[in-house]
Design a protein that fits this description.
With 232 residues, the protein is an alpha/beta fold. Helices cover 29% and strands 28% of the residues. The chain has helices at 45-52, 75-85, 101-110, 118-124, 140-152, 170-187; strands spanning 3-14, 17-29, 34-38, 60-65, 68-69, 86-90, 158-162, 190-194, 206-211, 214-220. The protein is globular and about 50 Å long. The two termini are 31 Å apart. The protein binds adenosine-5'-triphosphate (ATP) and magnesium ion (MG). One of its GO terms (cellular component) is membrane protein complex.
Length: 232
């Protein structure tokens, strides 16, 4: 498997207490698959995703990505991994406000080893005509399209999406899900997505349910429903 997490534990200190946020997580995702993580607020979803993405480290256990144990990488290697292999998409877009759409994507392309063409990526998210606009001049859905373009321009192995439709209305959410599906299909990007919306799980190859830092359910979907046909 491309992503293999086993017995991953993570605690945070709060005062004299320690709070175990991940209590021995195990999960796997094959290359080119879409995985969905479901679970209540505070169950550890973002913590798990951040460790897989190399922005945080586990305390113990293993996180293998393409055979590399990323918990054992030194800080420079981890930065390199994050920069080359991982694209992040967040609920609140995190675009740089004083850069145009094109510039937001170019700054990432410029620090990547083998970036995709900026205009190609903008076309893929249907935002080429808004290249010179600033983020404040865009709707939420358009800003999310730009943030997806920014995440995929480096041609990452893995796209990590933390509630990518959390701030969007119904129709816009559905178009963003269709876009993620197209990225998965056209670029072969492995996608791991956190959502609170159980209906979205139908478009995934694998579904992981998290509760209080533990995987309580793991399902492999035999039938995958295209995002276009998912309704809630
Ligand atoms: N940097 C941190 N320091 C201390 N505690 C943290 C830190 N990050 C997360 N936590 C705690 O870990 C637990 C899990 O947080 P996490 O963000 O992973 O939850 P989540 O499942 O993503 O929730 P949500 O759906 O609300 O985003 C929470 O109780 C949170 O307070
Ligand atoms: Mg979260």
């Amino acid at each position: 498997m491309f992503i293999e997490v086993s017995n991953l534990k993570k605690s945070y200190a709060s005062g004299a207490m320690t709070h175990e946020v991940l209590k021995g997580i195990g999960m796997k995702l094959a290359k080119g698959e879409i995985g969905v993580i479901l679970g209540p607020s505070g169950s550890g979803k973002s913590t798990l995703m951040n460790i897989i993405g190399g922005v945080d480290r586990g305390d113990s256990g293993e996180v293998r990505v393409g055979g590399v144990e990323i918990n054992r990488l030194n800080d420079d290697q981890l930065t390199e991994y994050r920069r080359e292999d991982i694209g992040f998409v967040f609920q609140f877009y995190n675009l740089v406000p004083n850069l145009t759409v094109g510039e937001n994507i170019e700054v990432v392309a410029n620090i990547s080893k083998a970036p995709l063409d900026v205009d190609e990526v903008l076309a893929a998210v249907e935002m080429r005509d808004k290249k010179r606009r600033f983020p404040r001049e865009l709707s939420g859905g358009e800003q999310q399209r730009v943030s997806i373009a920014r995440a995929i321009v480096k041609n990452p192995q893995i796209l990590l999406c933390d509630e990518p439709t959390g701030a969007l209305d119904y129709q816009t959410s559905r178009s963003i899900l269709q876009l993620l599906e197209r990225v998965n299909r056209e670029y072969g990007t492995t996608i791991l997505m956190i959502t609170h919306n159980e209906a979205i799980a139908a478009m995934a190859n694998r579904v992981f349910k998290l509760r209080s830092g533990e995987i309580t359910e793991e399902a492999v979907n035999q039938v995958i429903i295209p995002a276009e046909r998912i309704e809630w």
